[in-house]
Amino acid sequence: MQRTNFSELAACSIARTLDVIGEPWSPLILRDVFAGFSRFEQIQADLGISRKVLTERLHHLVDQGVLERRPYDRRPRYEYVLTEKGAELVDMLMVMTRWGDKWLAGEAGPPVLYRHHACGEISSVELRCNHCGELMNAGNVDPLPGPGAGRED
Question: What is the mean pLDDT of residues 6-17?
Fold first, then answer.
């Protein structure tokens, strides 16, 4: 099935990001790699995804520079690790997790907790301004045209 290339829709960072991880399995694969599932069989077993789809998604994520494929024995067997680019996508997934925990987890509560290395406390991710440190949300920011607006890359 041919995927829509969202990166060509406009000068839009969201569309470009969707071109990398907009297919529903991709964020779940990144979640699994972040959680320590690095081998094909581990990811497949955890997600219940077909071998064909998982192979396609892993190739795409490697091609996009989000995952790195590394051999782990003499046979042609590989494990997958997050690149710096991939780790920053996981940051975004943690924000999505916070939203899902708030609006969809129900009485059972969050299925996953995050312990912050620096203080050892269980916490969640919040968006903060990198200049003043205040919380940022859709109610207190204005989207403005950036230097890449309207430019063809």
Answer: 77
Q: Mark 77-87 as b/e (b = at least 16 C-beta within 10 Å).
A: ebbbebeeebe
Count, residues in the chain: 153
* CATH class entry, domain 6-123: mainly alpha
- DSSP secondary structure string, 101-142? HHHH-GGG--S--EE-TTT--EE----B-TTT--B--TTS--
The predicted-structure confidence for 12-26, as pLDDT tens digits, reads as follows: 889 999 999 999 999
CA distance 46 to 49: 8
pTM: 0.88
Cα separation of 1 and 5, whole Å? Answer: 12
Q: Is 80 helix (H, G, I), strand (E, B) or coil?
A: strand
> Is 79 within 8 Å of 42 (Cβ atoms)?
no
